[in-house]
What does this fold into?
Amino acid sequence: MALSREIKERSIRRYKEERDWFKLNLEAAELLGTEEGELSARLLRILLEAKERVVDAVENDKPFIGGYFCNAPEIFTSMGLPWFMVMETPFLAASAPFILEDIDGAEEMGLGSDLCTAIRLPIYYIENNMMPIPTCCLGLIYPCDGAPMLHQVLMHNSNWKNVPLYSCDPPYTSDERAIRYFADELREMTRFIERHTGAKLDMDRLVEVCERSNRVYTIWQEYMEVRKNVPCPHGWEMGGAQCFAISQCFDVGNPKSVAWFEQLIKVAEDRIRKGSGAQTKEGWREKVRLFWFDIMPYGWIFEFMPWLEEELGAVIVNDMFGNFPYSLIDTSSEETIYYDLAKRNLVDAPMIRQARGTAENFSEDIRRIVRDYKVDVVIWPGHMGHKDGAATVGIMHETCRELDVPFLHVGLDLFDKRYTSIDEVKDKVVTFLEGHGFV
Amino acid sequence: MSVFDAYIRKVAEYVEALHENGLEAKVFSRPGAPERISGGLPVRVGPNAHRGIILRSDTYLELGNPLAGSCAFVLWTDRSSLIEDGRITLLGPDIPESAGESLPFGQVLIMGGGGLSVKDHESLVQYQYVSDQIEGYMIKSAPDRVWSRVGKEAADRGFDFETLGRALMAIVKSAEPRVEAMEIVFLTTGKEVVQGLEKIAAQIRKIGKEIVKENWKIRGYDIECASDCRSCPEKRVCDDIREVIAVRKKGSKGKDRGER
It folds into this structure.
């Protein structure tokens, strides 16, 4: 049964507010007058275009998808389908001014304060008809136990009850057999999307999109190499999060994303040649190189990261989303494309890589990143929702001890600054860095 | 006898087969102590010998880009007699003759020492990723593969595979004195030649993962769930629930819900 105009309008209201928040951000970025400001502005324009495509689809009854970055979005691009991420607000818009109000709303619903905020928020939006209702939806039954619960809510909500849902089944292991199994799941997912949207997958188009995506990932890797430099050419403001947002969420396999990455590497290489660090202020120097092993704290990033970098000279040289374990997609046949997409989405994608896989991934990634990026301190923020990671803190700690690199476990909510106050987080970080003689 | 002895032989057989098929092999030899091995090299070797990074514009050649072909692994044994100390074998073009190229790259480091055991496996494997220890040589940060660059300046000074091999040997022997003998194989020709090595590498990685798992277990950590559905005593309960769900779905009118 078709949704009423009123339900549709309400479902898109918050999404439009989010879009308008980013429009405001774009105006600010355009005023910066720096190359990094221009990069941010271009990113925001790409983001806004993605959001407009979804708004257009809702308002004009065009097919669109609810999904995730780890559902091989190259396939959506190839089919010409707009899509949004069911967890989009916490992942990509947590700095929006209404976020705390919505977290409160989620708590008032009875979701409490212990369930991951990235899960609580979309549940709140779905239950209050504040999320676009797609033609069909792709679920995420990994990497953590909370994710399936979100989709159970979605299945039982009255507005979503006619939205077909398909969730790829993720094997536990990461060997060849597991990847082949997951490739078949992605094939089935493609058939599901075709069936419910009427769009068809054109293999030639998929090859084209994957090749462009390969170009993007090649430059991304080059950019991450550049970040190994001492001093690191960029800090928290530009890095893994932005690369992830463009390559896996807002503009997958499109020419604009290639152009954005080409500009990014050019700007970073120029900074290396000039010997510039993350900050160009006179007298500032990079004192300590940090590996922030999680999502950036986007709910309160502007109140924390500038302080960390400007005041302490502590630079985030890599984070969970900048971690680059990706391999390129072999576009020589349908078989190889699906196999490599399966690997990328089952084994490589951030958070999925860590939380779904064996704990060895935590240890191995720390080992490689500390060595390659000359990391002085590993920070495990200890997001309240990352209980999977909490179970491996001991392994991370042991690994860091072996590498002789200090390891800080904070304990916070990446999206809610009231869970552990920013002052408390600052206090923990500064005490730790002082104690180790870095600042 | 160590777990990898059979694979040391397999690598030797693979190299021999390539040679018999007409692939010319260059062999260098520099056995002995680290100082002797690194003496006279055209670049500095050791901690912080290479500062900074090699930008694209400063790159003389690239090795092991996954599109060109890439395979690297470490083998070790407690029987040094299986190894010809100081031997570096190169099959394929050398660095000076490959300006601007992106060559396929196979690299096998083989280490021997009476005191080596499975407890050393993880640290021995790390030696293939010499991040900043060879001047003019940079390894990209990519898991499970060696993808590297040689800088123009180093190439101008005569950096070649003998240099790289000797540098790697000096680094390993300095850091791990229990390595009494070391041998290296480099492959730089043909993606399919490197992929042939990958068949051995896949098995090595599998064994390596088991060793890592066991080493963590000794330290009190399980890095992998030990049980799965096949071994779970409650499997019958889950199977019954699945059957009930299947029956319910059949009777349900919301067909799309049955998608998953």
